[in-house]
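User: tokens in, sequence out, please.
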């Protein structure tokens, strides 16, 4: 059998792989939720989401979160290095509190000069500002003292009051990702019994929020957001 002739073809190059908005995402190695949630909340925009994973311990505590600071550069180096992104999101609420936005932003700027940077903690504060929230209810998965630290970080440097804080007391990231959305909905409703608030925030990118945000907002007649939802808005 004779070999087929190889035909030389011409091609042109686009400025980037896709015309869709592009999001760079630094996700935790154990987070099995954030990409699906971002695609859900950004379905109207249909962005390209390029992920890189940050190695992290399964246990959620201040020590393991702080250790991610030394791993940011190596993870950023693996994030489609030759492809531009419009914005870069660091996908960890408690990690953003421990590391601080400036440290994450500086790490990103070294690899991606001029690219805007966001994180769930910053996005949550912007969401509360936009909704005019003064008394916030916060549900999160963490054990103490991290639970209280994240709750306080959400209202720091503002006139907002942390009216109630509810936690699942879950110490392991892989388990947080398996907490059912129904548990989140029921947890929010239970912690609001007898409490006067004007907004609800669900902290942690590993908590799956698809459908729960809209259900809670409608049933409670309150603004409701969560880490992945606020991140999408920001």
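Assistant: Sequence out:
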């Amino acid at each position: 059998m004779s070999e087929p002739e190889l035909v030389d073809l011409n091609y042109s190059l686009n400025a980037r792989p896709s015309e869709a908005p592009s999001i760079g995402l630094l996700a935790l190695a154990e987070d099995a939720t954030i990409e699906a949630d971002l695609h859900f909340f950004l379905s109207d925009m249909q962005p390209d989401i390029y992920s890189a994973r940050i190695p992290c311990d399964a246990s959620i505590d201040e020590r393991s979160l702080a250790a991610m600071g030394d791993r940011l550069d190596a993870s950023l180096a693996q994030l489609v290095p030759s492809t531009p992104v419009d914005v870069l999101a660091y996908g960890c609420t408690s990690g953003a509190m421990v590391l601080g936005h400036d440290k994450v932003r500086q790490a990103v700027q070294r690899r991606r000069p001029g690219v805007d940077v966001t994180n769930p903690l910053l996005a949550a504060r912007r969401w509360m500002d936009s909704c005019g929230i003064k008394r916030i209810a916060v549900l999160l998965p963490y054990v103490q003292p991290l639970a209280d630290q994240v709750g306080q970080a959400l209202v720091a440097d503002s006139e907002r009051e942390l009216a109630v804080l509810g936690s699942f007391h879950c110490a392991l990231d892989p388990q947080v990702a398996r907490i059912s959305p129904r548990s989140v909905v029921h947890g929010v409703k239970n912690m609001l019994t007898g409490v006067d608030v004007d907004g609800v925030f669900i902290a942690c990118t590993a908590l799956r929020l698809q459908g729960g945000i809209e259900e809670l907002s409608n049933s409670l007649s309150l603004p409701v957001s969560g880490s992945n939802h606020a991140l999408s808005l920001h």
